[in-house]
Design goal:
The chain is of the alpha/beta class. Helix content is 38%, strand content 24%. It is built from ten helices and twelve strands. The strands form two sheets. A seven-stranded parallel β-sheet has the order 3-2-1-4-5-6-12, with helices on both faces. A five-stranded mixed β-sheet has the order 8-9-7-10-11. Strand 4, helix 4 and strand 5 form a beta-alpha-beta unit. Helix 1 packs across helix 9 and helix 6 runs parallel beside helix 7. It is elongated.
């Protein structure tokens, strides 16, 4: 069987370089293309050289269409605007699209869902195996402890532009699913001033930013006289890249549609 040909979006960025390295290290996978925004100063450079693993013979281009047309999967950790545009190209090429970008609007999500009618799209706020196991635990804990208040605290580096993080929202949705409620109807995103007593049944979010933190998340379930704290600490971006590559492999041969890492990890890790 030939290697799965994977294209990396945003290949010159921190996450893009990590993806190039992890794909190259993964048996059965090969970096077949890499691109950046038009006008990027590193266009023309070898993607492997930028990733610190030596030349791969894959130059970073400013035009995604030719490389997507020759690939079997695209990995995209860019921005919502770019991800929506790329989803349209993937729908035309009918390859697997793995989206790790965060901060999407409802309109963005609708456009990606439309593209997924013609391609396999795996979209998640967090691609790591540990976080997806954590989400399964949060769902069960929220269901088993119905009277406990739920608060989600996350911290990321000082360059992150969206809040709450995609991972925090993923964990919030897991908690809401465990309670059988809609997250958008019960989320409280930050508190300031005289807010009054906490409304029972809400799910609170707090976002911290600073330094070079890759990603810390805590889900706190607070009851009368006790607290359950479930947490995940990301120490290296490679965990997200590893999950994304696993999603590329998993998506081969799947029916067109929009999937999350929950479906991927259910098969790979046996989550229920």
């Amino acid at each position: 069987m030939s290697d799965i040909r994977i294209v990396v979006a945003g290949a010159a960025g921190r996450m893009g370089r990590t993806l190039v390295r992890i794909i190259s290290e993964t048996k059965g996978c090969v970096v077949s293309g890499a691109f950046e925004a038009k006008g990027h100063p590193l266009i023309g450079q070898d993607a492997g050289t930028l990733a610190g693993i030596g030349a791969l013979g894959v130059a970073v281009t400013g035009d995604p269409l030719p490389v997507i047309a020759k690939a079997e999967a695209l990995v995209d950790f860019t921005t919502p605007k770019v991800s929506v545009e790329l989803a349209g190209l993937v729908a035309q090429a009918q390859i697997v699209d793995v989206i790790g970008s965060t901060g999407f609007s409802a309109d963005d999500d609708a456009k990606i869902a439309a593209a997924a009618r013609h391609a396999v799209i795996v979209k998640s706020g967090n691609m790591s195996r540990g976080v997806n196991v954590l989400a399964a635990l949060v769902k069960q804990a929220a269901k088993s402890l119905p009277g406990f208040d739920i608060e989600i605290v996350e911290m990321h580096h000082n360059k992150k532009v969206d809040a709450p993080s995609g991972t925090a929202l993923l964990l919030g949705k897991a908690a809401a699913d465990g309670r059988g409620i809609a997250l958008e109807d019960h989320a409280v995103r930050g508190r300031d001033g005289v807010t009054g007593a906490r409304v029972a049944g809400t799910i609170g979010f707090a976002a911290l930013r600073g330094g070079t933190v890759v990603g810390d998340h805590q889900v706190i379930l607070a009851g009368e006289g006790e607290r359950l704290v479930l947490s995940h600490i990301a120490e290296d971006r490679s965990i997200f890249a590893q999950g994304a590559v696993q999603a590329c492999l998993w998506g081969q041969g799947k029916k067109e549609g929009l999937y999350s890492m929950t479906e991927v990890m259910t098969d790979v890790l046996g989550l229920s």
